[in-house]
Amino acid sequence: VFMVFGVSLGCPVILTVAGGFAGLGFVLAAAVTLRGARRALAVVLVPLVLASTALGVDSIYGEYQTIGNLVGYTPYPPLGSVTVRKASMSVGEWRDKARKDALPSMPDSGKVFVVSIPNTESKFKARKAMVYLPPAALSDRPPALPVMELLAGQPGSPGRLIDAGNIAATMNAYAAEHDGLAPIVLAPDQNGSAMHNSLCADTTRGNAETYLTKDVVNWARATLPVAKSARMWAMGGFSQGGTCTTQLVPRHPDIYGAMLPVDGELEPTDGSVETMVRRYFAGDRKAYDGQVPVNAIAATGTAGQALFAGAGKGDRKSVANMRTIAAAAHAAGMETTELVVPGADHDWHAVQAVWNPGLDWFGARTGLGEMTKSLEEYPQVEVLQ
Length: 385
What we know:
Elements: E1 3-4, E2 7-8, H1 11-33, H2 36-61, H3 67-71, H4 91-99, E3 111-115, E4 129-133, E5 147-151, H5 158-164, H6 167-176, E6 184-187, E7 202-203, E8 206-207, H7 208-223, E9 233-238, H8 240-248, E10 258-262, H9 273-280, H10 285-289, H11 293-300, E11 306-312, H12 316-331, E12 335-341, H13 348-365, E13 382-383
Parallel strand pairs: 5-6, 5-9, 9-10, 10-11, 11-12
Antiparallel strand pairs: 1-2, 3-4, 4-6, 7-8, 12-13
Helix pairs in contact: 1-2, 8-11, 11-12
């Protein structure tokens, strides 16, 4: 009964909403039965009870960080407001210069920008993307940096991922400890609107897969100081974005070397399989089956790829999904890591907790810096595998 967009609301949300309705019922009854000042007070309390309930639910999910997030305000400047140069050295050469105290000039922190990525090949109607550039990328002579292509859930947006995922602060903290180095983060739009589900596939409803794996990638390679080898590229995402990650990365081993999904599903989902096959794939069941992560993993072999997956411990379905996909990845020879987040459910708190060690892991994998502690030493996660 308590399912929205295919996932459970979770006990904390259900209890918060139940408490809110109980409080609403109390103040409405008071407004009807009382008189004078007490009636007026009860009337005033009605919107306050509703607002406090909504804030309680939001605090559980960690979805809207500010009033601006709630109304869709984007405070980030366009990418065209800065000069971004192509890479002039490797990450290794940058680190050598750091040891010699000979780094190029760069800002103290990285920044998030808004950009419209051309849909040259896909013609997919995407919303504007977000891009985080670390200090090194904004220098006069940037290195060829690794890339994390990160996807929000559905409903969601690139801006929601940047803000609710705490991306800028997390990346800047990493860069401060690594001589300005951090991954470039691409947050493209995989759905076209908050309420549309593209399934992250090329379908009768839009070529989302081509947009994410060709248009976005080609634009980044032509515009930003990014490394080109698959080992230096990762895809990650929350909820539907996590599902997209595990279906796309195995299908494109020439582009991506790692995936960091959180609270993903076992397959693309928008209604029943029969409905999706009819509405999205013109009746071609084989085309749909090819998008199912365990099938994609088995079909490609995933040589050299790695999985760093997580889920809120209270979201038992997502934990089970993670374990199933990780088992398939392990059987295919992929390096796998599975984390759960105690006290979290299907929410952005789980995302932040998983991507914190995930960033250190990916940084070590791409040469930005070594991991200085084991996964068991990170305070917010438990290691399953």
